[in-house]
Amino acid sequence: MKKILVFLMFMLGFLSANSLNEIKSSKILRVGVFEAQPPFSQIKENGEFKGFEVDLAKEIAKKIFGGNSGTIEFKPVLASDRLKVLQNNEIDFLIATFTITDERSKVIDFSNPYFAVNIGVVTRKDDGIKTFADLKGKTIIAEHGTTGEVYFRNQGFNILGCDGAANCYKMLKNTPDAVGYASDNTIVLTYAVIDKSLEVNINSLGASDFLGIGVQKGNKELLNIINDELIQLSKEGYFKKLFDSQINTFYHGLADKKYFLLDDIYKFFL
User: Fold this and answer.
1) Number of neighbouring beta carbons within 10 Å of residue 120
2) Is residue 33 within 8 Å of residue 73, measured between CB atoms?
3) Same domain for 250 and 229
4) Is the separation of the CB atoms in 107 and 144 below 8 Å?
5) Structural domain span for residue 170
């Protein structure tokens, strides 16, 4: 009986998804993003969202609405709530450094990837953490529901959970017993850039994962138009331009171009 109820709840969530035609008719596109994860997305003092993922969502919105006017509503989400907000139809698509995994793909659909990441760890310089071996037997901070949390838990580490990258950063600054914050390497590099008391010496753990845009399971027309736009943007050199103007500038040359320019993938579509 429990399995039947879970299935029915899933199906109800699926049926409530806004179709592409409904989005066009309402002239409103709801997009889930993080509110404090530069350079991907962050909310500024004036209430506007800025960042690479925000700009990419705006490009997709142009494709959806065509020459007609439309409004894009950015909705802040927590990492642990990303699946839930999609399944509950609180947003139409999610672009929030969301790693494509087999487990997540069972309940939502992902677009083609737009970024590649490995897991990295940001640590305090004073602690002298230089290698993975230096982390052994120590506590690691990781966001709930992230691949960083899964990786270190599977390695047998004690995990101190947190919600939101900004909160994880504050915990690292204020929790002497935890030696590092683990997440996507692009995220942890951010804190080494903005806080000179931190460093990232461990930034290529595990196999490379890919970030994708999430939509509710079965929302194929919306997924197709997102994928079409990603291919078109790659063809136009959009990602190369953005790497030079935003990503490389923000990371002061620390971000490897291979993670951002997925030419080996998109050449099959061009």
Assistant:
1) 23
2) no
3) yes
4) no
5) 117-209
The predicted structure's pLDDT at residue 85: 95
Examine the domain organization and report whether 95 and 229 are in the same domain: yes
pLDDT tens-digit readout, 146-193: 989 999 999 999 999 998 888 999 999 999 999 999 999 888 999 999
Name which of 33, 41, 186 is nearest 95 in CA terms. 33
Considering just the CA atoms, what is the radius of gyration of the chain in Å?
Answer: 19
Most distant pair of Cα atoms in the chain: their distance: 57
Look at 79-93, 94-108, 113-127, 241-255 and tell me which has the smallest mean pLDDT: 241-255
Residue 234 in tokens: 């790659």
Burial 28-62 (b: 16+ CB within 10 A, else e): ebbbbbbbebbbbbbbeeeeebbbbbbbbbeebbe
Q: In what order do the strands lie in the sheet with 41-43?
A: 36-37, 41-43, 49-50
CA distance 262 to 242: 13
The answer to whether the beta carbons of residues 37 and 190 sit under 8 Å apart is yes
CATH of the domain at 127: 3.40.190.10
